[in-house]
Every structure is written in structure tokens, then in C-alpha cells.
Amino acid sequence: MNDHPAGLSRRSMLVGALSIGALATATHIALPTPAAAATALTKLPAITSPARTLFAENEQVLARYLMSVTGMANDIVDNDDATYGFMGGGWWRPANTQTTTNSRIMEHVATLAWFYANERPWNPYYRNGDLLKRLEAAIRYYTSLQMKDGSYPEYRGESSLAATTFGIVAQADTYEALRTFGVSYDARLQLRQSMERAVAWFMNPKAAHWTPPVSAFNQASAGLVGAQRSLQVLDKPTTTQAAVNERITYLIAKGQAPAGFFHEPYGVDFGYNFTVTLPDLAWLYRHTQHPDLVPAVQRYVEFMRYAIIREPATGELNHVPALHVRNVTAAMSRPAEDLSDRAALAKDFLPHVPDLALFFATAEEKAQARAAFSSSTKGISALGKPDTSPRTWMYGVLAPIGPTSAERDSFEAALPSLTNERFTKYASGSKKDQYLFVRRPSYYAVSVFGDWLKSYRSTRQLGTLWSPTMGTILVGTNNPDAPEGWETVGPRGSFSTRQSSSTSLFYDSRASTGAQQMKDDQLPARSTLFAQRTEATAGTAQYATGWGYWDHGLRYTFITQQAGDCTHRLPLLLKAGDTLAFADGSTFAPGDTDREVQTSSLVLTRDGHRVLFSLGTKPVRVFIKRTGQEIAGGVIHRIGIVFQKQIDVNTVFLADDAAVTIQVEAHRHANGDVSMRVTSLPELRGARLAIAGAATGQQVAIPDVADYSVSEQTLRASNARARSVGDEVVTVTATGPDGTAIATSGAPIV
To answer: At CB < 8 A and 24+ separation, what contacts does 93-102 make?
Structure first.
């Protein structure tokens, strides 16, 4: 809320404040000067677009800001006492936050100040008196919004960490620009006192925003930039270099998750981590050389390397949307155009964290974009409202050009999912969130488990399933307006595994029943089959799920005690040329109308490769709906499977050779047990499977159903003969009713 007495206009209050010098000293509030006698300030004239060749390459980012200065300045309110000096016009911040008490809107004082203070052949606003008067009015209004405790408001007129920390930086730039020419004493006084109080509020180690774990890393890192700037521009700053250094250490320790990402809040978010936080950390590193900053960025990039998916056919890079909590993500963007390259200053870290090259446009792309700017014959247009962040030009003019194409290509080719077909990476967040990355010869699965907050855009359960030959198969969104994902929805929508909290335990076995639990830190050592059991924090009466991570697919089991129809959803990505086949031989292709089928299996064929989704031995109702959500060169189709109480979804990447009618894989566990998975094609219906070799078990009967069959079993150590690792092999033979062998397949025990 504002601290203005009722019944007084803003201008009356500001003028009145000047006559109460004692009050100024007691409250340490910056005192504005009276408004000009005339109600309206002189309007700035429109300018003609300058020659593009006049701009230095690193200052091309300022061109569209230049063409916006007149509009920004003239939109400063000068005809209303209550809002005199407010930066109207909707230039900055989302449209639904455009209120006169949102101090973040005022951050463009830094933009106007830059154009006032910097002489360039293309800048007609240099030392422009009319611009200065409008800027002074904006500074008066801006600083009058400061709360009694030194913070600034954003939403609902309440104290805001973001408004305060980003504001300090904008005010420091503005103050420095005005002081350069010794102009606007009153405005500088207002800015100086504002910064002194805001920095003191932010740097107070007992303040709520430092409560561990620090929840909004980007806002705190912006505050540290502001505090450091105050040391540079103020004669008597209210903090010290030692205090700033100590808070950097604290923020890295308490604001970076064990997994490596920066809290936003608590979860990972590429939009804030990469485009907001990393440039601030780069600026801090330039000015402090703090030893904790480079290792922090290294940990972040190491995590993100696992969260990027590359399509084998096109090379397109995509995020795993389910990981991200605030900004909607899909394809990874690496803009070369300066105005869109918001993370540009983070390139400062490239000599220390070369893998960061993966996320940037190349130097060649940057040079091409800048050459295109210079050679264009079109006039320069103003910025598009409201996406006009002043941070873009602040850091853009300072940023290095970026990695070479060869450098970026090498790091892209070195993504873990491309260079290693066997690994398990487990990472934990700071709020019981769990991140699981499982690479096996046929697939890469990225999942999020643990606590879920309703305000999060990230989701729980499987996020993305990718194949090295087929590319992305399953992928969810983190778009609350278009929610898609792997989830099981309870009867009457009573719960969703995608949007609920659960706890996960892991086992070196095929399933959790009777198995010995593995500790989380043992998971990375398990690069073959293991099992996972998740239970809803609301209790197993709500749901429990089980996962089996085989080499050639996944097994998902869901169980609930609640009665009624449940729906399991597969976010299946279909691309042009894909075919989805059902057990009765009918098919679905991209572009087909939505439909309902009765089936016990679905087989996706893409470029000659196939993946099976086996739903059991009995047909169930399956709905196919095109969603319109695009990613990875395809469109997500929601596959809804209706069932009751329990479902087993077996995902198997089938052999490319259609003549292979039996697929076998076997895994030995630490206790000597051997687990096997056998997938048989429809032509083997009714056959029996006999197991021989290093593991001998009971015969398995294939159901007499014209469909794929997936069976699992575990042979205890006493029945699994131990041999040297290279010799361990199992053989499975399918026999017909008369005992004649009709198919044979074998596999090594891994």
C-alpha cells in the first residue's frame, strides 16, 4: 500500500514535503522538487530513422530503443496531479500489471538517461533539455513510490523484491548519467537517497528474502548487481564490498539447488536461469572476480546438458518442458539478433564454461545478423510494447560476440544423451523435487518426481521419452493453457499423477516387491535395469506407480484403490509420415480426425522404426485427440486410455527387422538374480516360451490373442547360473501346440 495521506494529490504532497525539512531528515525520504508551473511539459518531436551504418556493431541493440525515446518520454504523465511523472503508454511490463503503483514500469528512466548522456552521431537526444525535464518528472514519481522500509512496490502496491532489486540497477545507471554532467541536483538527490535505502533493505541478512533456501535467485542476483553498482556510483554507499562478496557466497550456497539449477522458485526455469540470472552473474564476475561464480555456472550448465533433446533427423534442439516452473518452454531458441539475445553477457563465462556455447547463436550467425541490420534499407521501427526490457541494451552493449560454429557444434555433439547409451543421473532439488535422467540403448527418459506446487508450471512423472533413431516419442508441455503430459487421472478427476506430490524409492530389481531398496546416491552406478516405486503423498489409497527401466523400453504400472473409470494419457508426438497402428489392424495418421478405438496395443512407426505401447491382453477404450501443441517437428496427440483400478503400460522399442518375432533382454542384479523381459509379435499367439542358457526358468504361455505380448520374470540367484560376464546368455524358444520350435531368440545378460 502507499504511504500517502488521504485527500492529498501526489503533486501537493511533493510540494508540501519541501517545506518540512525536519521531516525529510527524520524519515530519510528523498525530497522531490516542485512541479513546473505549467501543467504540461514540452513534447519531444518525432525523429527520422538514422542511417543504420552509423551504429557500432555492439550498439545496434540501441537502435529500436532510439526510435522509442520520443514515445516513451511523451507518454510520461504531465496532465494529472496524482500520477504526474508516471511512465505511461504501456512500454514495459505485462499489460495486466500496468498500474501506477508498479514501480517496475519506471525502470526506463535508465533508458532515457542513457540517450540524454551519450553522444553518438545517430543520437539527437544528447543533452536535450526537454528530455531531461521529462526524465526529472519521472524520477520524482519513481522515487516517491518507495516504501518506508526502503523497498519498492510492484503488484497491489506491496513491497516487492524484484521491483526493488532491478530498480536499484536502473536508478544507478540513471544517477551516473546525470552526475556526469552535474545536472538535475534534486533528481540526483532523490535517486541517491532511494538507492541508499533500497540497498540497505536488500542487504539486510535478516530480511525474509534471504531465508534459506532462497526462492527467487534471479531477483537476489539482480540485487547484488544493484549493491555493487551502488559501490561504484555513490560516495557514501550503505553497503561494503565485503558484504556484497559475503552475500554472493550465501546466495550460491542457499539459492542453487543440489541438482545445479538456480531456484525460480525452488524449481528450474530456463527463462529466468539463462536470460536473467546468468547475465547478472557474468556482470558480477566482471566486477568482483568472486571465486564461487564460475563453479556455480559450471554446475548449472552440467544439469542443463541433460535437459536438452536433439532430434536425430533435423538436429533441432528442444527443452524438456516438464522441468520448467515459470516460463513456457518448447524448442530451444538461440537468437542472433541483438534485441532478442537477452542472455548475451553470459558469454563472458565461455572461457571458463565452454559448454555454455550450446545455448548461444554462433559468432558467424551474430555477424550475419549485424551485417543484415547495417545493409537493410528499411527504416528502424520503435520497440513493440510491452517487451522492452532496459536490461537488454544495458548488457547487450557489453557482451562478447559468442562461440564459433565449430565450437558450438562440438559441444552439441557431446550432449550426454548422444555420447553415452547407458547412464542413470539422479539429481535433487531443495524442496523434495527429484530429477531422473535414464539413458539406455533404445531411449532416453527424463522425469520429475517429488513435491509439486500448484503454482508451478512444471509437472511430475515422465516428461520426455526420446529415441536415438526415432527422436522424440512422448513429450508433455508446461503450458497451463494447454496442459499435456504423461499422467494418470483418477475417477471423476479426483487426482492427477502429473499434478500431485509423491515419494519415490528405487530398487536394484525388476519390481519393488521383496526387493532391497537402493539409496539415491547409488542410482548413478546402476546403468542397467532398476525399478522405481512412487506413492502419492496423499497415501497409496490414492495411487501408487511402478516403473521398470529396461534397455529397450519402460514398464509403467499404476494402481489405485478408488473405484470408477481412470484415464491414462500418453502425450504422443506425431510427425508427418508417422503411422499409429492398433491391434485390429486399423491405423491413425497425422491429420486424421480424432477418434475412439478398442485396442490392447498401439504401434508407432516412424521412418521404418517402431515403438510398441502394450496395454495388456484385453482391449480397452482409447481416445486419440490432436492437441495443436507443436514441438520437435511434430504435434502432440493426447492418447487417453480408460481403465479401472490398475493398468500396465509396456513401452518396447521393436527391432527394425520385422522377421524378429521374439525380443529378449536379461539383466543380472547385485544379489545374483536375473530379470528377463520377452516381447513376442502377434504371429506367435498361443505359443509357449521355453528359457534356456545361463538362466533357466518356468515356461511362459503367450496369450491366444492376435497382438503383441510382453512378459517379465525374475529368476532367483539359485536358479541363475553364474558364469563369466562375457559368456552369460539366455535363449528363448517359442514352441507351437505340438512342441515344435517356431522361433528362437537370445540375449546376453547385462
So the answer is: 93/386, 94/386, 95/386, 97/154, 97/155, 98/386, 99/157, 101/2, 101/145, 101/153, 101/156, 101/157, 102/153, 102/154, 102/155, 102/163
Spans of all domains in the chain: 1-43+60-207, 256-419, 423-654, 662-748
Which regions in the chain score pLDDT beneath 50? 1-38, 724-726
Question: Which residues, listed in sequence order, are joined to residue 675 by a DSSP beta bridge?
Answer: 667, 714
Q: What pLDDT is attached to residue 354?
A: 98
| Res 666: pLDDT | 95
Task: For CA atoms 465, 467, 473, 479, give the dihedral sign.
Answer: positive
Q: Supply the pLDDT for residue 47.
A: 97
- Cα 441 versus chain centre, distance: 26
Note the pLDDT of residue 25: 31
Confidence (pLDDT) at 720:
62
CATH H superfamily, domain 662-748: Immunoglobulins (2.60.40.10)
Which run of H or of E encompasses 167? Answer: helix 161-181
Give the number of other Cβ atoms within 10 Å of residue 260's Cβ.
Answer: 23
Alpha carbons 547 and 567: distance in angstroms, whole number:
18
Position 13: which residue type?
M
Quickly list DSSP for 702-744. PPSSSS-EEEEEEE-GGGB----GGG-EEEEEEE-TTS-EEEE
Contacts of 172 (CB under 8 A, 6+ apart): 195, 226, 229, 230, 232, 233
The architecture of the domain spanning 423-654 is Distorted Sandwich (2.70)
